[in-house]
Specification:
The protein is mainly alpha-helical. This is LemA protein. Keywords: Membrane, Transmembrane, Transmembrane helix.
């Protein structure tokens, strides 16, 4: 009889840990998607081929970024800095944090359990 409360408390702590880690991973994914959307909107101002509303793959975003950066004119540099470069840096930072988090041992178990994959 004395072990039942201990088992219940331990189970609840494990479930709360899993829920907290899953919530954290989901929020990082949402932040990455938001910054990708902001970056794509900023890139559309600098590249005429992106004016359509078709979806752009996340892997293709870095190629577009490099192409737009090469063709950037001096007077557009500040707008490029605010609308494209800062979200791009945030995306890279968040992806790095996400990948580090799911590579650590207790978090990798939760990521595998909940279906989160590295970027």
């Amino acid at each position: 009889m004395g072990f039942i409360p201990v088992i219940l408390t331990l189970s609840a702590a494990i479930i709360l840990f899993i829920m907290a880690v899953n919530n954290s991973l989901k929020s990082k994914k949402i932040q990455i998607q938001d910054f990708q959307f902001k970056m794509i909107e900023g890139l559309k101002e600098f590249d005429d081929s992106l004016k359509s509303n078709e979806a752009i793959k996340p892997d293709y975003i870095s190629e577009i970024y490099q192409r737009v950066k090469k063709n950037l004119q001096e007077d557009d540099f500040e707008a490029f800095e605010n609308k494209v470069r800062r979200p791009y840096q945030q995306i890279k930072l968040l992806k790095s944090q996400f990948n580090k988090l799911i590579s650590k041992k207790p978090y990798s178990f939760v990521a595998t359990l909940m279906g989160h994959k590295p970027y």
